[in-house]
Amino acid sequence: RVVQGVYEIQKGFILKVAQQEWDEARAQKSAQEMFHRMFYMKFLPPGRGLWAMGTAILREKGLGAALNNCAFCSTENLDTNPTAPFCFLMDACMLGVGVGFDTIGAGKATVNRPTEPAQKYVIPDTREGWVESLRVMLDSYFKGTAALDFDYTQIRPAGQILKTFGGMSSGPEPLMDMHVAVRKVLDKNAGERISVTTIVDIMNLVGKCVVSGNIRRSAEIAFGNATSDEFLDLKNYETNPDRAAYGWTSNNSVFVNCGMDYTKASERIQQNGEPGFAWLDNMKAFSRMNGKADHKDHKVRGGNPCLEQSLEHMELCCLVETFPFRNEGLRDYKRTLKFALLYAKTVTLIPVHWPETREVMARNRRIGCSVSGVAQFITKRGLHTLQAWLESGYRHIKSTDKALSAWLRVAESVKLTSVKPSGTISLLAGATPGLHYPESRFYIRRVRLANDSPLLSGLRDAGYTIEPCVGCEKTTAVVEVPVDVGEGIRSCKEVTMWEQLCLAAFMQRHWADNQVSATVSFIPDKEGSQIAYALQYFQYQLKGISFLPKHDYGAFAQMPYEEITEAKYHEEMKHIKELHESTENDLPPRTKSQLDFLSEQQEFTTHKQEDSYCDGASCLFNPAAAKQAAKEAAEAKAAAEASS
């Protein structure tokens, strides 16, 4: 399905937009190889790509934004359009896009009190309807117009199947809670200029609503001023106890400049691991941090929630993940990079529904081709070989993008590479996430699912530990997965804070022209006091970094990773049985393939029962044949190795 979707989009674009010839035989051969490299997990699209590519989300709804991982919006223009950044964030988050935002709009708009009597407002049962309800409520405060009496009766009740997006409806409760909470925040700020706290509160409350709204698992990052006590205290729940209910929805980072004093912010890090750091000047001036400034990203304003992407205001970006340790050699890996690039570049061809975003994306075509399993590669092949692969791979992906862009008749991508922290996709491929070393050889990996997810019953029957998610007990469950990463790989407790920083700088120099997402773990009583000094050295080598204190009890409840003993691992595994395989009924709905977002006339069809890449009457891509070919290739390789 994913491969089919990719090549459908390419074909539509080539024929109707680029007005080039389409070579069917060449496309078939290319599609077969993409399938092979995905099937053996040499690279994989992001989770949203596996979920949405080739489905009705694109074909019927035209929601290309759902294929993008991340976005950024600035609050700078709150004086002229105070509702825009909040509504953009909600709309994007409801499509699963992680959004970063700044707080520089503080003081630029006045919060008024709505007038009485209140006017009735009926909320439609759509994504757009939910977003519009936020817009009209914010308008009532910024413009001082009539208060709103919301009518939620059109919103479907909880538990109904969502045919296009999957999962079950949440009912109106998350939206009702958001309206009540945002009103409380604005009432507190009424009569004054909007504050940093109010900006972040509204964004966080929107994030909580979206996460509570069923299957969407979005993320936020808030950027503030490193000298602002107000911003730095946002996650000090002794100072701001009310924020504990929703402050967790964003990572909080500060914009910093080379040469500044990092002492104050570093002291906060030792308490709860925040803030993170973003060197905006480095993001604007450099591609890879190899000493050669090119200033090609001088319009960048911030980054995405995990800070592996530099982004302009209203810009979206698509990520794709490669696994060098799963490739046979450098030549094989360079072929993998071609197809990873092909997937991500194809996503940039799909229009999104925000005009300003379309303009930025068409100009930048920014993607983030990432690497995971770095710890496994270093363990197996060594750091020097990794450097050679990264340098050669980067040159290859640059030249491939140049040729691909010329064929598509679009702009070359402003930047191409990053290191994402990774999550589910690295787990799927059996890879350590991004550049991070595992928590330990044996650990618990926690995954969050909606309470009404059909996966939960199967996981519960299989014996996995499942508990309510702290802060979202009514809507979200946490599943605990015991993991054994195998022998030979060092755990993060064996890798010092300084070595982790060195590895991040290494990847920023030799691979990432966007950024490296790295969360450096440290021992508070031994390394905490060294953070400010470390930042003085690495401020010239990084664009962003975050830290997390190592505690026996964990920095916070239900951490994604938790070290366990070998005995505990085997005890957990005693209760876990094999999961049942999915059936066709578990897959997303299939509909006819109509690329309305590219052309009202051009139409491509698919078989109803088989995901096939087709052109008219003849099928060009057959997954069964691709699987068989991949199996035969693997058997031939095994036979050759055995004979040698």
List keywords for this structure.
16% strand; 644 residues; globular; ten-stranded mixed β-sheet; four-stranded antiparallel β-sheet; alpha/beta
Q: What would you say about this model in short?
A:
This protein is α/β, with parallel strands linked by helices.
Q: Any overview of this molecule?
A:
The protein is α/β, with parallel strands linked by helices. The strands form five sheets. Strands 1, 2, 3, 6, 7, 8, 11, 12, 16 and 17 form a ten-stranded mixed beta sheet that branches. Strands 14-15-13-18 form a four-stranded antiparallel beta sheet. It has 22 helices and 20 strands. About 7% of the residues have low confidence. Helix 5 packs antiparallel against helix 6, helix 7 packs antiparallel against helix 8 and helix 14 crosses helix 15. 44% of the residues are buried. It starts with a helix and ends with a helix. Helices cover 39% and strands 16% of the residues. Strand 19 and strand 20 form a beta hairpin.
Secondary-structure blueprint of this entry?
Layout: H1 2-16, H2 24-39, E1 43-44, H3 47-52, H4 56-59, E2 70-73, H5 84-94, E3 98-102, E4 115-122, H6 127-142, E5 146-151, H7 173-189, H8 196-212, E6 220-225, H9 229-232, E7 250-256, H10 263-272, E8 276-279, H11 280-285, E9 302-303, E10 310-311, E11 315-322, H12 330-347, H13 355-364, E12 367-371, H14 374-381, H15 383-408, H16 424-428, E13 442-450, H17 455-461, E14 465-468, E15 476-484, H18 497-510, E16 519-522, H19 524-527, H20 531-538, E17 544-549, E18 561-563, H21 566-574, E19 613-615, E20 618-621, H22 623-643
Parallel strand pairs: 2-3, 3-6, 4-5, 6-7, 7-8, 11-12, 16-17
Antiparallel strand pairs: 1-11, 2-11, 8-17, 9-10, 13-15, 13-18, 14-15, 19-20
